[in-house]
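Can anyone check this?
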Amino acid sequence: MTRFRPVDGWVLAGALLLALLSIWQLERPRIGVEITTYAVSDTPVTRYARPDADGPVVVIAHGFAGSRQMMRAYALTLARAGYRAHAFDFEGHGRHPVPMSGDVNAIDGTTRLLIAQTHAVVEAARAEAGLEAPAALLGHSMATDVIARAAENRADIGPVVGLSMFSLAVTPDFPRDLLLITGQWEPGLLGFAREAVAMVDPAVGDGEVARNGEVRRMAVVAPAVEHVAILHSRAGQRAALDWLDESYGRQSDITVPMTGWWLLALLAALVALFSPVARLLPGYDSPRKPLTLRQTALVLGVPAIAAPLIAVPLDPGLLPVLVADYLALHLLIYGLLQLGLLRIFGQRLGPVCGVTIVVLILWGIGVFGLALDRYGANFLATPERAGIIAALALGAVPFMLADTRLTHLAPFWLRMLARVVFVASLGLAVALDFEGLFFLLMIAPVILLFFLIFGLMGRFAARHSGAAAAGIGLGLVLAWALGVSFPMFSAGGPA
């Protein structure tokens, strides 16, 4: 165990203060809002409303690989303004126990099932509220196409708000009441939003309302955000609230809170807090014999090329998560090849410290994960995902063991190069089977984010307890993070 230094006390105090301040700021929007959870058939729904809420129902839907937790900022803003917000998990997402099914490429496949699910939530939410006014729909990314189609020919659905919207269902006449909010850093979707408004009035610009008979439409640009940060955009939330107020003849006088930066501050504080915690872990020497440039090239290059060449033909397609079984196999081959080469080149893993593994898991899933689940995105596993996480661990543990051994005492350039090479390896797999492995492109940002956050915590642990314990702990956390993030999918479901 390494002794605490004076600087550790300052790090601990500063990080703890930042964490407490962030929690306070993130909890403030909840004050005065009742948050309850119920189910519509198998669909988990969270209702946000003031006890005296008198506003219409707003049903909120998330994007692909999202969850109702990711839509919490918009739900709380609307609830504080008197609306009754109902956010739900699509099939296969978040804590919904039933996998997605049908043909994901066909409108009458998966999309039709998600539309039916949206209709069921709308009907349940309106019945609970006992209101005659039609419900509003608000959705992000994938959900924008679903809610646009769900609103068609439904008298019980009124205004539609699309965040990062793209839908071929949008026509000059439909939806009649549509607001499109797009991030400044989403150039392709900005183009679609402007085209959707131009269908109604080509002379109208961003932030201006286009009208043609009963059709009302506007495109709003949320400044300095992209596809994910738009979920915490204050400008986006304000625009959505103002649009719904005009649609329903209401007036809201609330301040939209800043949540995105406080969420990042909390997560950064929790990472920083792990540094002094890691100094309490049992200490082991971790001697490292530097690799030559040739050895480094082989350790990085051979697995990166060989893993997709071997794994793509072997992809078993057994797990009920899109590309999860392929990813587990890719990680396994990649990790075993790297471990073998590292051993040939004299790199040993060293002793395994069980305490370090447990602490990494408890901090990564129990502390960091619970904070993320409460304020950012779903991070808790349902029983249906236990087997998926276990299967992913078979590949994630060898992969992280090799990665930690290679990088935890390495210079910055080597750590960054290792990440780039791995992502390139996934890119090679997609190139070999684009149709079957396209969704790997969406996994790459999750893995890079994992390295940025959990990888740093693993480095703290490896400095004191060696690469073996840190690698095993990180591998299990990576399996968990992947297992809870991506949607479950059953190809054998209804078409």
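Reply from J.R.: I decoded it. Residues 262-490 form one domain.
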